Model the fold of this input.
Amino acid sequence: MLGLHQLIAQALILYYALVGIWGVILGIRKAEMSSAYRGALTIGVVMAVVQAAIGVGLLLSGRQPASDLHYLYGATVILTLPLVASYVADKKFSRTLAFGIASLFMAGLAVRAMTTGQV
Done:
């Protein structure tokens, strides 16, 4: 189960980096939020929730991360997009650019979660 947790963590880093670049490009081009991009963001959140569920399974089986910061980084990855969505809902700021920047931020959070999770 630890191997799967690490594999999904690597996938999250790559996925959020790509979705982030995509969002920044869409934002620079002043493109509207497409259903494809919205779906990509949703897939990322679902992946993060699955990752957290596997992490809880590891915790219940007695495996603990090297640092408690691992929990903070993991929770922040899951909570970032809903927070960004609530923030930009009534703003004139480009939604795609905001989600793109947030996705790049989450890729960085996933890197930090990996480094604090290793024993």
Observations:
- The chain has one domain: 2-117.
- DSSP finds four helices and no strands in the chain.
- The longest helix spans residues 2-28.
- The chain has a mean pLDDT of 92.
